[in-house]
Write a structure and sequence with these properties.
The protein is α+β, with helices and mostly antiparallel strands and about 300 residues long. It has ten helices and eleven strands. The protein has a seven-stranded mixed β-sheet, with helices on both faces. Strands 1-2 form a two-stranded antiparallel sheet. A two-stranded antiparallel sheet has the order 7-8.
């Protein structure tokens, strides 16, 4: 809850030039009346993923959200105690509200929804992003095809900057639908890897994953995500939860809501996805993904 003296020294930044460290929910100042006609309090401050975690109302330890954007960003609320990760995740402050600090574990996936953009602009197998769901739905699965979209290296929990995109398992029977399905599956598999690391760090097996972001509207992806994780996936009616979380924090500061308990009722379920695939099928899919990931890392490591 203060600026890091060692980092300030490394970067040569005098502490006196930095703003005071404040909580996530309090009135910091007001806009000038000339701008909006009234003086509006500025009362909520949060990082992108912290705001999404609060917007999803993941306010209890063990609650997890995943944002499916260009990349994917998962956070788990770990309560009032920071947990040092042993699985290459980040330990971060979630928020401070009413004098109480809550912490979180965070994992970042570099290529999430942007793999669909690659299908559109790079391969040209779809004309617009919304076409990927119907194309992938033409097949029951990827027929043994796996895409590891390490176009910019692999993020959490691997952190291998040299890994590169790998497409394996193709035959003459492989078509555009199989590649589209493998691309969607890759988002779910990468999420599985991060969640596994989180659960290992926290010693918690989650009961539900709350999802948001643009790609979470894809029902094929969300159902497969539930199948692979063997847990419930909950998509809220409002999926732009970053802005929502910032608004909740501001609302608490100005007294629109009296406590986080008052906000819990604001979260509304849109669709719930439950695991449906048999365990032996899931085990086969996961084993294939792990082989494909090892291939991508092996390609990176086997450099002359």
């Amino acid at each position: 809850m203060q600026w890091d003296a060692s980092l300030l020294d490394i970067f040569g930044i005098p502490a006196s030039m930095l703003p005071a460290v404040k909580s996530s929910s309090e009135i910091y100042g007001h806009t000038h009346v000339a701008h909006l006609g009234v003086s509006v309090p500025i009362a909520g401050v949060a990082g992108d993923q912290q705001a999404a975690l609060f917007g999803q109302q993941c306010t209890l330890p063990g609650m997890v959200k995943n944002t499916y954007g260009t990349g994917c960003f998962m956070m788990m609320n770990t309560g009032d105690t920071p947990i040092a990760s042993h699985n290459q995740l980040l330990t971060t402050i979630a928020w401070q509200v009413g004098g109480k600090v809550q912490y979180a574990l965070e994992g970042s996936i570099f290529i999430g929804g942007s793999v669909v953009k690659w299908l559109r602009d790079g391969l040209g197998i779809i004309k617009q992003s919304g076409d990927v769901g119907p194309l992938a739905a033409q097949v029951t699965d990827s027929d043994g095809v796996y895409l590891v979209p390490a176009f910019a290296g692999l993020g959490a929990p691997h952190w291998n900057a040299h890994a590169r995109g790998t497409l394996v398992g193709m035959t003459q029977g492989t078509g555009a639908a199989h590649i589209a399905r493998a691309a969607l599956d890759s988002i779910a598999f990468q999420t599985m890897d991060v969640l596994g690391a989180m659960q290992a760090d926290a010693g918690i097996t989650i009961a539900e994953l709350r999802v948001d972001g643009g790609a979470c509207v894809n029902n094929v992806l969300m159902q497969f995500q539930s199948d692979i994780l063997r847990t419930r996936v909950a998509r809220p009616k409002i999926t732009e939860t970053t802005a929502l979380g910032a608004a909740y924090l501001a609302g608490l500061a100005v007294g629109y809501w009296q406590s986080t308990d008052d906000i819990q009722g604001q979260w509304q379920l849109d669709t719930r996805f439950e695991p449906a695939l048999p365990q032996e099928v899931v085990d086969r899919y996961v084993a294939g993904w792990q082989r494909a990931t090892r291939a991508a890392i092996g390609w990176a490591n086997d450099q002359a």
